[in-house]
Design a protein that fits this description.
It is built from 2 helices and 18 strands. The radius of gyration is 18 Å and the shape is globular. It has 264 residues and is mainly β. β4 and β5 (47-54) form a beta hairpin. It has helices at 212-224, 249-261, and strands at residues 11-20, 23-31, 35-37, 41-44, 47-54, 64-71, 76-81, 85-87, 95-103, 108-111, 116-118, 123-132, 138-146, 160-169, 172-181, 199-206, 228-234, 240-246.
């Protein structure tokens, strides 16, 4: 399959934080077309929100993207995207993105891009690799994967969607989610897959302590919320992971926000 980039080279974003004069700032910024970086927002002096903008309508055939986030010691950052991630129709090729994240000691990153929408006949590979320096490196991972444009009759009409997430701490692998969705070979809305739902949300708290009482409250919230089904569990590292099936991005975004704010 062709991976020729229509921008003539790899589209790249590189961010590096640092702490200076009592506040966290972007110490190093680099980006190429179609990306730009907005001026950071500051909910608090020691907490920075960074939004990545794109001049493109979405991910196109042949796109090759590379992201690098370096969260330095003592800094806190939230990564945001501009809009829902649209993966457009492709004739025969694919698009790919590779993201590498390093969270140093006593640092925090919330990685929360908006939901991904794979259009009919699209093909996309996403690789996210995260390195946590030690137990003091906090990482909050959030993602929502949709079935496609269901209202247009394009539920699971993409050619394939592959999404691999790996998280290491002190060099040791503590979490891996290797998603390989191929509607030609899998019954995507069947048992063990989306089971009649159209959207899947993942939320994982790394090195962010969550008590058993908190987990019970999350389960209760999910049980009493109509139109979705989910659960919360502990992974091998002891971190908490939440997975929810729903029928729309907005309801899932709202309940993820509740889980992170009202129940933190």
């Amino acid at each position: 399959m062709s991976t020729e980039n229509k921008f003539g080279k790899i589209s790249e974003v590189r961010l590096e934080t640092e702490y200076r004069d009592g506040r966290v700032i972007l110490g190093d910024v680099y980006f190429t077309a179609p990306f730009k970086i907005m001026q950071p927002f500051y909910p608090a002096p020691d907490y920075m929100q960074v939004m990545v903008l794109s001049a493109s309508a979405g991910i196109m055939e042949g796109d090759v993207q590379k992201f690098s986030l370096h969260i330095k010691e003592g800094t806190k950052m939230e990564y945001l995207s501009q809009a829902y991630e649209k993966i457009h129709k492709m004739k025969e090729g694919k698009a790919e993105r590779r993201t590498k994240i390093l969270v140093e000691k006593n640092a925090f990153l919330k990685y929360a891009p908006l939901p991904t929408i794979p259009f009919k006949d699209s093909a996309f590979e996403n690789h996210l690799e995260v390195e946590l320096a030690d137990d003091s490196s906090q990482f909050l991972f959030q993602e929502i994967l949709s079935c496609g444009r269901a209202a247009c009759g394009e539920a699971f009409a993409y050619r394939f969607f592959r999404n691999q997430v790996s998280v290491r701490k002190n060099g040791e692998l503590i979490y891996r989610d290797n998603t390989r969705y191929d509607p030609e070979f899998f019954e995507m809305d069947g048992l063990g897959m989306y089971e009649g739902y159209t959207h899947l949300a993942n939320l994982v708290f790394f090195n962010i302590e969550k008590t058993e009482e908190w987990m019970v409250r999350v389960r209760e919230l999910l049980d009493e919320t109509p139109g979705m089904e989910g659960g919360v569990t502990r992974i091998t590292s002891g971190d908490a992971a939440v997975r929810i099936l729903g029928k729309g991005s907005e309801p899932l975004l709202k309940i993820l926000d509740k889980i992170q704010t009202n129940l933190l």
